[in-house]
Amino acid sequence: MARQPGARTQVAFAFESVYGTPPASGYRRMPFATTTLGSEQGLLSPELLGYGRDPQAPIRDAVNVDGDVVIPMDAENLGFWLKAIFGQPVTTGTTPRTHTFQSGGFTLPSMAIETQMPDVPRFAMYSGLVADRIQWQSQRSGLLTATVGLIGRGETVAAATAAGVLTDATLPLQRFGNFQGSITRNGAALGNIVSAQVSYANNLDRIETIRNDGLLEGLDPSMAALTGSIEARFADLTLVNQAIAGDPCELVFAWSLGANASLTFTVHAAYLPRPRIPINGPQGVQATFEWQAARATSPARMCTAVLVNTTTSY
After folding, report:
1. pTM above the 0.85 mark?
2. How far apart are CA 77 and CA 170, in angstroms?
3. In angstroms, rounded to a whole number, what is the distance separating the alpha carbons of residues 202 and 132?
4. Using alpha carbons only, what angle is made at residue 117 by residues 76 and 60, rounded to the nearest 5 degrees?
5. Which of 6 and 175 is assigned the larger pLDDT?
6. Which of 82, 100, 260, 306 is most buried (most C-beta within 10 Å)?
7. Are the CB atoms for 254 and 262 separated by under 8 Å?
8. How far is CA 149 from CA 31, 69, 133, 136, 160, in A?
9. What are phi and psi of 186, to 5 degrees?
């Protein structure tokens, strides 16, 4: 009996033209570290009396398709996930090309993703997937990855792939590293930052209509949320004074591999709470700011992601 190692798994990715209908071709292999994407159908315990102390058979509940995919923050493939989170970007230039993603859009694309386990074999196609959230953490060292949360409609399992031949030859893997990152506040470098975490959520509304297959009718984006945290060595009162005043600031998280590969994520209006500043011992004093973002006056949006690479389009 074959046993499936994770090293021989793949993820095939394609955008759908019709919600819930996987395309027949055009899938590409996407790099990933881990995934919990799957389909679950719970059991409902019966409430009936009169049959003694032993219960009747359980009833199957609705089908839920969701999960997370941990992906590398890279210059090429990340654009597909940013499109899933924010919608179609505006692309300019030739070499390099600049892809600008903006928050607040009402139209989000759906995806089909097939998780491939050839040694079993098990090829699970998940349709009607919409990106609910993305989050990442920046620090001095370690691998820079992002976690994308997905909600889908259905799962189809087969012994052979439905994705066909995967295309990925034109997208080399160019990963950003933590040491290539920077954080600025209102255009000035923000120093003494130990770690930073960013989370953007579409807060998808599940349309749970009555169907004979137990699947979702669809997913609608509701009010978006952009939150995060900054853990800083306590060296000055810049952030504390802003928190006390209640004024917003612009935070920019950026990574660069040179002129042809960079990522800039701008939070246009970040509000900082007044933090507790504990003294935990003889080491340096640190403060954590759990910030929240809102729609800025100019530009009239909450955040902008700019990805520079050599990819034609997303």
Report:
1. yes
2. 10
3. 5
4. 110
5. 175
6. 82
7. yes
8. 16, 7, 5, 12, 26
9. 50, 40
Rounded CA gap, 255 and 128, in Å?
A: 32
User: Which candidate, 75, 64, 71, places its Cα nearest to that of 97?
Assistant: 75
**pLDDT tens digits for 100-159?**
999 999 999 999 999 999 889 999 999 999 999 999 999 888 899 999 999 999 899 999
Q: How confident is the model at residue 265 (pLDDT cuts 50, 70, 90)?
A: very high
Q: Which of 29-43, 159-173, 281-295 is least confident?
A: 159-173
* Cα 159 from Cα 176, distance rounded (Å): 36
Q: 50 CB contacts (<8 Å, ≥6 apart)?
A: none
141: left (phi over 0), alpha (psi -120 to 50) or beta: beta
188-189 vs 181-185, strand pairing mode: antiparallel
Q: Token match 């990819």: residue?
A: 311
Q: Are 123 and 60 in contact (CB under 8 A)?
A: no
- What pLDDT is recorded for position 12? 95
d(CA 179, CA 135): 18
For the chain, the C-alpha Rg in angstroms (whole number) is: 22
Strand partners, 204: 221
Average pLDDT over residues 40-65: 91
